Amino acid sequence: MSEMIVAMGPMFWLMMFFAVLALAVVAERLFYFHRVNINSGDFLRGLSALMRSGQYNEALHEVRNLPGPMARVVEAVLSRPKLERSELRDIAMEAASIEVYRVERYVRILLVCATVLPLLGILGTILAMVAFYEQPGIISGSVAMPQIAEAIKRALLLSAAGIAIAIPCYLFYMYLASRARKIINNIERAGLESVHIICDARALAEEDARKQQAQSKKTCRSGACSITQTEAEETEEKA
Predict the structure, then answer these.
(1) What does the pLDDT read at residue 7?
(2) CA distance 42 to 193
(3) From CA 67, how far away is CA 73, in angstroms rounded?
(4) What is the spatial distance between Cα 142 and Cα 147, in angstroms, rounded to a whole number?
(5) Residue 165 in contact with residue 15, Cβ under 8 Å?
(6) Range of the domain at 151
(7) How far is Cα 121 from Cα 126, in angstroms, rounded to an integer?
(8) Is 234 helix (H, G, I), strand (E, B) or coil?
């Protein structure tokens, strides 16, 4: 095996560099996606319950304690609760667009590896064949067939190695790209839902305030009427 690797030359080690790079990207992205994975449904339901009950500071505290891009987008919206709905929506989309880069970072390196590795393998095969046929005695036929077969085998191994490494690179690229797209959709949904939660909670608070104000006015009027009636009775008694 070691002799075969040496026979494939420096092109093999260049391919191994891309293979190690792809492996590092896969490990880093899998760890990152696992760390930022949040159940968006439970998260938004808990946030809605806190906002409807008027516990704004508690909601903001909970969001700041959570890791990941979803929490950062929601925090950007919650930090400006008094803005209009359209302005909050713009803030949510801007914050989500910033997080897109962090989610998709390094994923395209896998696509580069999956594209370059087969090309490197084919290039290594061609260069190995050219180097072999430049040896003296090849054209005249003085080289034995087993030697020619062994040289061709070693040259084709480069193409096989490039394709064999490129296939899992491309499969992991498709998998990680789909997970990144799903996370981005959840981030955008969480941002827009947080806008609706804030606006609904604000409308509910305003409605409660109007009801309390109307109730206080009604109580005040009834109290004034009772006072007026008492004064009238006292006046009649004096008369």
Answers:
(1) 59
(2) 12
(3) 11
(4) 11
(5) yes
(6) 2-210
(7) 9
(8) helix
Token readout for 214 is 């109307």
CA distance 95 to 64: 15
DSSP string covering 119-166, please? HHHHHHHHHHHHHHHTSTTTTTT-S-HHHHHHHHHHHHHHHHHHHHHH
pLDDT in tens, 70-124: 888 888 888 887 888 888 888 888 888 888 888 888 999 999 999 999 999 898 8
Using DSSP's 3-state secondary structure scheme, residue 83 falls into coil
User: What total number of domains does the chain contain?
Assistant: 1
Residue 67: left (phi > 0), alpha (psi -120 to 50), or beta?
Answer: beta
3-state secondary structure of 81: coil
pLDDT tens track for 182-225:
888 888 888 888 888 888 777 777 777 777 777 777 766 655 54
Cα–Cα dist 14/46, whole Å: 51
Residue 38 DSSP code: -
Per the listing, tokens 């004064």 go with 231
- Rounded to two decimals, the pTM is 0.74
- Tokens at residue 211, please? 């009801």
**Angle of helix 10-35 relative to helix 145-238, nearest 10 degrees?**
20
Rounded to 5 degrees, what are φ and ψ at 36? -95, 5
Rounded to a whole number of angstroms, the distance between the first and last alpha carbons of the chain is 125
List of residues 6+ apart from 122 with CB closer than 8 A: 158, 159, 162
Q: Is residue 229 part of a domain?
A: no
Whether residue 237 is contained in a domain is answered as no
Is residue 15 one of the residues assigned to a domain? yes
Residue 236: inside a domain, yes or no?
Answer: no
